[in-house]
Amino acid sequence: MRILVTGAGGFVGRHLLAELAERYPDATLLAPPSEALDITDAAALDSAIARMQPQACIHLAGIAAVSDARADPARAWRVNLHGTLHLARAILRHAPSCRLVHASSADIYGASFRAGVALDERAPAAPLNVYGSTKAAADLALGAMAQEGLRVVRLRPFNHTGPGQSDRFVVPAFARQVMRIAAGLQDPVLAVGDLSPLRDFIDVRDVCAAYAACLRPDLDIAPGTILNIASGQPRRIGDVLQSLMDLAGVAARVETTGHLLRAADIPFAAGHADAARALLGWTPSIPFSLTLADVIAEWRVRVHAA
Could you count the other beta carbons within 10 Å of the beta carbon of residue 260? Predict the structure, then answer.
């Protein structure tokens, strides 16, 4: 099996390559760097797919941070929507039997979370920001292309974190500050946004296990299938921060900072992953306490190396 991974050099991609190598040791992993597989260049991407002839593709490449999408909306649309469509069309044209596993996002549910309950895949897409809108558009477009023969599976992971994630995301942003305080490099004051929202956090390695499970040769999965990837357990952002401080043995004052607050934030976001459990036999296996411990351990090294 020839498995193409787009965005393989990113946070999720590095964990995914390790998961794929362990689960499918006889597979050929195609993981070109982003500069060699620019999904926004339709002609070059078309030629690359024709040459590589992937039998499976896990599509991770994209603008992943809400802040990055907000800062450059045109680029977010160009990459997240049009780049995804370029890839899907090239696969349909040159490798129509290829199974495409698309990394969508639970962020597309947006305002649907205001119901205050954990959502399943039937919840309407109602994005509240540029990032969510671009991901929703790509998700819906791929669903339509499934009717044209695209063998696509759409996975909607909830908030995932773990070692290697950029500090543009909340857990490593907290961990970086906590470890700088522990090292005496920062006053014992933590700059934070709103700590009251509840989020469904999951370890990136569990997310990668779900992506990899979609490639099982024995798996009969209908084109266009949507699967939430979630823990089902909402956690208060402030409690996550406290857990990181406890792991590091740090006490600090917490100060809310205006630029870290989101204008359209929602108080509760969690998901049901019963469909993934039934179809893939997947459940999260990594305790969140271990996820946080691994993030703290990484930032301990990074802070001391800086």
Answer: 13
Residue 34: the pLDDT is 83
Q: Torsion angle of alpha carbons 205, 211, 15, 243, nearest 10°?
A: -30
CA distance 153 to 46: 21
Is 275:227 a contact under the CB 8 Å cutoff?
A: yes
Close Cβ partners of 287 (under 8 Å, ≥ 6 residues apart): none
Paired sense of beta strands 234-236 and 198-200, if any? antiparallel
Task: Please state, rounded to an integer, the average pLDDT across all residues of the chain.
Answer: 95
The total number of residues shown for the chain amounts to 306
pLDDT(265) > 90: no
Q: What is the pTM of this model?
A: 0.95
pLDDT digits (tens, 9 = 90+) for 84-96: 999 999 999 999 9
Could you tell me what percent of the chain has a pLDDT over 90? Answer: 93
For the chain, report the end-to-end CA distance as a whole number of angstroms.
41
The tally of CA atoms less than 13 A away on the side-chain side of residue 177 is: 22
| Conformation bin of residue 110: beta by default, left when phi > 0, alpha when psi is -120 to 50 | left
Q: Give 27's DSSP letter.
A: S
Place of tokens 């070692």: 163
H or E segment to which residue 101 belongs: strand 99-103
